[in-house]
Each structure stands twice: as C-alpha cells, then as structure tokens.
Amino acid sequence: MYANVLVKEPLEKIMEDWDYLHERVLSHFATFKPMGQNIYGVRRGRPQSRPPDEIVPGPVSYVQKRPSYGTLILGPGGVEVKQSAEMEISITPGGLPHHTPHSFGYWHINDMDELSIRLPGATPDQPGSLLLIMGVPKPGETDRWAWYCEQCLTFLFERVYQTGALGFNGFWKAERDAVASYNADPQNQRCPECGLMNAKGYCWNPAKDTPDEQQARAAW
Amino acid sequence: MAAAPHNSSVESFHLALGAAEGGQIHAFGRYWVWGQTLPVDAPPLRLLEWTDHGIVELPTDSSSLHRVKAGTPHFIDGLFGYWLISDADQQWLQALHGDRRSYGLIAGGATGGNRVQRITWYCQECGTQLREPEELDHDGTVEDFLAAQERAVTAFNLNETRRRCPKCHALHPPAYGFRSTPGPEEQAMQPMPQPARSVGSGEPAARLPDLQDSKPLLVEVAGREIALVRSSDQVFAIANRCPHKAGPLAGGLVRSSTITCPWHWFRFDLQTGVSCTNPLMRTPVYETELRGDEVFVHVPAAVVA
C-alpha cells in the first residue's frame, strides 16, 4: 500500500523534530515549547503507578496530606489529589488551580485545558516520560500564579500574566517575578484568617532556586 | 463526555489507553481524544502523512509523539480508511512498553475546533488524488462526525468509478470508517474461535436455548462455518467470513439486525448479507428453520457440493 509513492529518505531529513520524545529534541521541550495550536512539555522520569484518588476537604492542611507524586487540584470540594496512571491521558480543565508538590511552588491557574500523559519506558529499566500539552493561549487568556493558605485555603496572593496578549516567551520571567513578589513580603504568606505562616513559593526550574526556595521545594 | 469516573468533585478527564472505554473517541473541552492498547505483535497502526516531499510513514518500532499540522492530509492505517484533513492539530502518540503497544490520538488545540474535517482518497499505487477533499457535514459532536464519515465512506465504496485511478487505473480497495467501537484488530492475533458444534446437512445446528440474544454462536454445518445470531424471536445464519479480509463475523457486534466484523468494522445486514458499509459487498446468509427448540440451517446443495 503506497509502497511505490512513499518517500524513501529518512524521516529526519524531511521533517524537523517529527518526534517530540526524541533525545535530540527533548531539551527543547523541557521548559515548554509552543508548536502550532499547542504548547508541549516533556520531562524524562520514572512514572509511578497510581494509588486511588483522595479527596482532602478543606480546611485541612494539604501539605500534610500531599502525595509523594502527583498533582493537587483545588475544586469546590477542597484539595484533591490527582495522580494519573501510566498510559492514561488526563485533562485538567482550564481555570482549575493545580499544584504539583516539589515541581512548582504555587497554584497554577491557566485558561487553557492542560493534558498530561505518563509514558512508561520501553522496558522496566528505561525511564519513562511525562508529557504535558496545553492550548496556545488566545488573546485575553492568562496564566496566574496563586497561593492559598495550606490550613484554611484562604486566598493569599496572586500574579497574572497576559499570556495570550504578551506571548508564551515571557512566561518564565513572569513566573519568577510572581514567586519573588510573593516571597519578598512575609505578610503575603501570613493567612489573614487563621494566622498560619505559609511556606514560600518556588519556580518550575530548580536551577535558580535561592536557599529559601530550596527549602520551600522540599516542604511542599 | 465519557471521562472515566474518578472520585472527584470537579469535572476532569481520564482515559486509560488500555481500558474498555479505549477505542472510542471522547470529547473534552477543545480536544477529541482516542486511545487504545494492542499486543505488540498485532499489526501496528501506521500513520502516513502528505508532506511537501510526498507521502511519509512514521516508524512504528519506537515510542514517539508526532504532530500532524492542521490542514495536512493524513491516514492512519488500521484506524480509519481515508485521508483526513482537519482544522485541528493532531497529536499522534505511540508507546512501546513490554509486550504492549499503546496509541493515542489527541485532536485539538487553541484554534483547532474539530469542526472542519475533510476527507479524500489517493491511489494506493501511484498516489494520484482520486477526488477532491469532501467536507464532512456534521454538527461538531463526535457522534455526528462518525455518522458523516461513515456516509462518505459508503458513498466512496459504492462508486467504482470514483475508486478507479484515472492515471494508473488501479482500483482502490473499499474504505472503512473510524475505528470507534471496541473490536480491535488484535483479535486477528487471537486463536480463531472453534465451532461449538459441527453437524451435517439436515441435522440440527443448535438448540434455541443455547443462543443468547445478539450473541453470535459459531457452528459448522456441512463443512461451512456459520455464525448463528438470535435477535428477538428470529434466528439468522450468516457465513463466518467477512468478504473484506476474512474476519470472523462470529466475533462481531450485533445491533439492529446487523453484525459488524471485529477486524475492520464492515457492517452486514443479517437478513440479506449485504454490507451496509459497502453495499457492493455481500456475504452468504442461510435460511434457518425452527422445529421445536431445534435450529436447522439449510445450506444449499450446490454449496455443500
């Protein structure tokens, strides 16, 4: 079928970056890359199998009950643990605050739906991958970095980036600015309702962590 | 939206590629999602794509994530039997893991609404386009899309002139619609079912209580493998051989007096044997007779001979 008309040249010569999982291009996606209608992120790692979902209704400290691996989402029922099994496509709807412990130290709220897929390695001794795919923001759509009290879920602080208008290229600088602003004033971390002093924030990229941020990354 | 149930207070979506709901298209937000897991030794699903250089095929021997840009004709052999041109980017995922191979197709993105889909066919010998791309008329839902593409496939299959290449005169094989129901091709890798009973001509082929409604029973009558199907108070007998690629119809899905081949989803009228997918195609059906609770199948003498 189509044998006579298939292009015989190696695919690499015809289509650049045809495989986003290829080692050669993986680094391009480590900090997310817009391609066409979506933004792609790929992280190498070893996916773990999923324990049952757990609902942690507020007000309860989600830090104390955080999963060792997985994502927390903040829904009407409180903080929920969302852990996807290998070979499972998950979609977090746009607008839903979510936080992945030890990966990024804030609640991320984007207007775009966000897909995640955990891929196992081809063999048990090979690392798997985590894929993240989200729609390229349209004008008017934003990314937000927010913090809520870990004890009573009271809203503490937020920064907004107009991703649709300003473009994804400015995302990481805006993220660092948001974290720095939150961390700069201890009053931001003090809950006005219950008085709890919350942990500081930290960025997606651990390479630039300050000592305070390293401590926060270990904590939550 | 058929998200897998999770113990959650918010609407979110999970599709386990190896689970029962795999194999169907699900819609969530801006995305349409399909996925399935097959044994690694099953025939792989092959993605072919038109590029500026011609048709290219993605390797199937490694895990990969590939984007088909919106507007690009592509064909996934084994998943749908036409070239699709969509307004949405298509993310095609292949993952090899152990003795399994998982596939995922994620259609959608910021501006891709899965609203405009066109389909076409190219000659499998010389690559000549057989007809201008036809826009599918649907209301934006998965169900309506599936119905629209099936109509287009049936129309293509009915028209031999349309399937004949004007350049090299090769005849395009019958097309097939999106593989949207569980009924995976890996069944081809499973041992073929054996007839529950083997009888000669004039002998009862089965007892009525042995036939469950809409669940085919494979029997052999006078050397012919026949799928017996009970539907309400009727019993149908249809040859256990799909005329497309000899798939076992006894393993097929029965709905509304039709049976769908589990290999490539060709559907047949149980009464006439004529394919609803391609009405030029027909498989033998046999007359049945009930005597008490015994079912007799009349295989014509010419066939027996």
Name the biggest interface. A-B, 61 and 59 residues
Biggest sheet of chain B, open or closed, and with what strands and sense?
7 strands, mixed
Residue windows where pLDDT falls under 50 for at least 5 positions of chain B: 1-7, 182-190
**Major sheet details of chain A:** 5 strands, antiparallel
- Would you count the extended β strands of chain A for me? 12
Spatial strand arrangement across the major sheet of chain A: 1-2-10-9-6
**Helical content class of chain B:** under 10%
Q: What's the helix count of chain B?
A: 3
Mean pLDDT metric of chain B: 86
Unreliable spans of chain A: none
Helix % of chain A is 10-25%
Shape of chain B: globular
Oligomer: heterodimer
Explain what this protein looks like in three dimensions:
The complex is a heterodimer of chains A (220) and B (305). By secondary structure, chain A is an alpha+beta fold. Chain A has six helices and twelve strands. Chain A has a five-stranded antiparallel beta sheet with strand order 1-2-10-9-6. Chain A has a four-stranded antiparallel beta sheet with strand order 3-5-4-7, with no helix packed on it. The mean pLDDT of chain A is 86. Chain B has two domains: 26-163, no CATH class; 191-304, Rieske [2Fe-2S] iron-sulphur domain (Rieske Iron-sulfur Protein), CATH 2.102.10. Chain B has helices at 142-158, 160-163, 301-304, and strands spanning 13-16, 26-28, 31-39, 46-51, 54-57, 64-68, 74-77, 83-86, 90-97, 100-108, 117-120, 134-135, 197-199, 206-207, 217-221, 224-231, 234-239, 253-255, 258-260, 267-269, 285-291, 294-298. Chain B has a seven-stranded mixed beta sheet with strand order 13-15-16-17-21-22-14, with no helix packed on it. Chain B has a five-stranded antiparallel beta sheet with strand order 2-3-10-9-6, with no helix packed on it. A three-stranded antiparallel beta sheet of chain B has the order 5-4-7, with no helix packed on it. In chain B, strand 19 (258-260) and strand 20 (267-269) form a beta hairpin. The longest helix of chain B has 17 residues, at 142-158. The chains are: A alpha+beta (220), B mainly beta (305). Chains A and B meet through strand 2, strand 5, strand 6, strand 9 and strand 10 of A and strand 1, strand 3, strand 5, strand 6 and strand 9 of B. Strand 6 of chain A pairs antiparallel with strand 1 of chain B.
